[in-house]
Amino acid sequence: MIKIDIVIPIYNSSAICDKLVNEINIWYAKGKFFPNVIFVNDGSNDNVEQVLNSCLKNVNFTWQLIRLAKNYGQHTATAIGFHLSNNEIIATLDDDLQHSVESINLMYDCLIAEEADLVYGNFINKQHHKIRNIGTKLLKKILHTENTNYTMVSSCRLMRKNVIEMFKLQKQKIHFIDDFLLLAASKSVSCFVVHNKREIGKSGYSTYGLIKMAFSIILLHSSLPLKLITRMGVIISAICFFIGTYYIYQKLFCSVAIGFTSIIVAIFFSTGIVLFSLGIIGEYIRRIWVSKQNLDRVFIAKIY
To answer: What domain range includes position 61?
Structure first.
């Protein structure tokens, strides 16, 4: 049997705990995998912890349950779950059964066949609301400007142990875990898995929550705003210098009002210098941010 850790963040999901545990138990009984399931209670407001403890009394697989002091978000909860993982293969699933546990079989076969470090389960037909699907696609396109391909990213994942080693060294809030996973994986691939409709309850993400998370990812886990400031500063400063040069030409070869050229040239050249300096400062801040987020870390894939 293949030993595997499965990290499942849970939030206000007491109504579906019984089905979730039962599905894992049935999947384990098929005999291919021996799972250690790590449940991370992300500051739930319901009695999910008591219900889950009751459901887990008669299971055959091993499990662990962590309770976070407050609601830190799905990505942080997943990262904390990695702290307790010890097996060579680790999977992550949602608690709402939209990701079937059977997806692990497909992702594992893909991991071995492709000799990859990280496999994402991409959905054939996404069962989320259309607006949410459009927002997800838009966010991935925005983040693609970071020179990393996020199109395959989902919360249904399977990875080797080396991909999550960095999370063993830190315990801090993370808004976008896949930034680090893609950075640590030598080869990332995806395979198609089934995306089920949510059977019970509503998503823990409201429209406001999704928008807030998207802005958090862009501002706190992306250097895109700093890149835009840098490029805008350089471009606008170049335009200002050209306009200033044009007015100097007008002064030398055409008849213009006395004092006009000196004022307009002073404005455009000083503005150009300020914006150019702002662009340089923005680039330095971006590099400091990248270093602070550990996104410039060097990962060793394997030692022979």
So the answer is: 2-220
As given in the structure block, the two tokens for residue 247 are 């007015």
Tell me the residue type at 121.
Answer: G
pTM: 0.69
DSSP conformational letter for 97: S
Q: Give tens-digit pLDDT for 153-171.
A: 888 899 999 898 878 776 6
Q: Could you please report the per-residue DSSP string of 124-176?
A: SS--S-HHHHHHHHHHHHHHGGGSS--TT--S-EEEEGGGGGGGGS-----S-
Q: Do 155 and 288 sit in the same domain of this protein?
A: no
Please give the single-letter amino acid code of residue 159. Answer: M
Residues 168 and 229 in one domain: no
Q: Look at residue 14 in the predicted model and tell me its pLDDT.
A: 84
| Residue 127: closest CA among 198, 202, 191, 74 | 198
Rounded to whole angstroms, the Cα distance separating 117 from 19 reads 30
